[in-house]
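Two folds, back to back.
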Amino acid sequence: MNAAKVPRPLGFAAGFAAAPLVYALVRVISMRMEPEADPSAVIWAEHSPAVTRLVVTLYVGLTVLGGAVSLASAAPRAMPRVVAPVAVAAAIAVLAQAVWAP
């Protein structure tokens, strides 16, 4: 297998595996900083906290994705050891977020 072609897909895999982790962290932090109001008040509000979380998660997630692809290019042998722990950490974070900040 060509070593030049392997790192990028692994970098993308690590970045996409980290996306749920990023969302869970953003959700827990936002719930701890300011709990959401009544759902009817949120629906009719001019500024939705869900949109803010989406934008922040998208920004941080794309930053993590870029870092993972850069790491894959710089250290291709390290990426197979990174993808599985990142996926497990993301699964644990999503479960914890579901319990503590539904």
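---
second:
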Amino acid sequence: MKRVVGMVFSLLAVMSTAVFCLVGYYDITLSDTYCVTGEGGLEFPDNDLLFCDDRIAKNSVAVQKSGAGRVSSYDTTVSLFGIVPVKSVHVTVSSANEVQVLGLPFE
């Protein structure tokens, strides 16, 4: 029984060390500010480990679309696995750029 408890404790120690190393790594490498366009909010498509609080993003974009007091930025927390907070970041919401072609075609 002592061996099982020792193995479980060792496994938990290794896992918690790995999680804290990831938190430290992402705290250093993630930017403090982000700029997003559209309704999606802040996402990390190349990284399945990082998540942010979507409720803040949806509320900010909804207020911006309704025109009631234009909200163009918000603060959110990036978390590891959606559980362990890593870093607080500032997100600026901007409208998407549009390109319109004008003039006559060459003949």
